[in-house]
Specification:
alpha+beta, Creatine Amidinohydrolase, 4-stranded antiparallel sheet, 3-stranded antiparallel sheet, 15 strands, about 25% strand, globular, binds 2-amino-4-trifluoromethylsulfanyl-butyric acid, binds cobalt (II) ion
């Protein structure tokens, strides 16, 4: 069942969303060669606490951290670690905050120093996919319309869209219905209604869309070792168009 949110509930969701957004703004300046993803994790734990938010992923299905840190060929759900980031890496930091009983969820990819042309293009195109999808997230459209825009832009640029990890509804819990991949056909899938709140979170690979999971049970990597990038916002569907709750 898809839980629709009233306009006052959507207003209440802005707090968690804005904390997540402020976190991403803060780490943008922090990410450089030599910094570790555990440094970013520690900052996240402190930042959420100072802002009166709870680190929702910590302990979620046994996930041990407040952030996911996914470097280079890691698609998603990478564990923060002590290895310093190095020039040319790309890292996706995903964070989920709970504030006043509501969730905000946003992942963002960052370049570490100067990155390759391929990495820069992958980042650019993935971000464009996110915003092209958001543009289509209007009442009356279907999820297939949204994801067709994402998929078409990705593939036209020579990249592939990960199918095995899904977008999701967001509310009092991180994962609500509906769930959907970031590929689709126009006119297919559920119809977008006022009061829906869900993520648009395309993961694009430079190579094939397939993934493997590490022995830790979480870390999702590209099967072919190619680079992967993700941008994610939590959005609310309203009569006046989509609201990006996690806008930076
Ligand atoms: N933000 C991720 C998502 O979009 C999930 C959080 S990672 C988890 O689903 F490890 F906590 F599950
Ligand atoms: Co998410």
């Amino acid at each position: 069942m898809i839980i629709l949110k009233s306009s006052s509930e959507i207003e209440d969701m802005r707090k968690a969303g804005s904390i997540v957004a402020a976190f991403h703004q803060a780490i943008a300046d922090m990410i450089r060669p030599g910094v570790t993803t555990l440094d970013i994790e520690s900052f996240a734990v402190r930042f959420l606490k100072e802002n009166g938010a709870r680190a929702y992923t910590m302990g979620y299905n046994g996930y041990p951290f407040a952030t996911c840190a996914s470097v280079n060929d890691v698609i998603a759900h990478g564990f923060p670690n002590r290895k310093p980031l190095k020039e040319g890496d790309i890292v996706t930091i995903d964070i989920v905050a709970e504030a006043d009983g509501w969730i905000g969820d946003s992942a963002w990819s960052y370049a570490v120093g100067e990155v390759s042309d391929e990495a820069r293009k992958l980042m650019q195109v993935t971000k464009e996919c996110l915003y092209l999808g958001i543009e289509k997230a209007v009442v009356g459209n279907r999820i297939g319309d949204v994801m067709h825009a994402v998929q078409t832009h990705a593939e036209r640029n020579g990249f592939s869209v990960v199918r095995d990890l899904l977008g999701h509804g967001v509310g009092r819990e991180m994962h609500e219905e509906p769930n959907y991949p970031h590929v689709g056909k126009p006119g297919k899938g559920f119809r977008l209604k006022e009061g829906m709140v869900f993520t648009i979170e395309p993961m694009l690979n430079a190579g094939a869309p397939y993934m493997t999971i590490d022995a830790d049970g979480w870390t999702a990597r590209t099967a072919d070792g190619s680079l992967s990038v993700q941008y994610e916002h939590t959005i609310a569907i309203t009569a006046d168009g989509p609201i990006i709750l996690t806008a930076q």
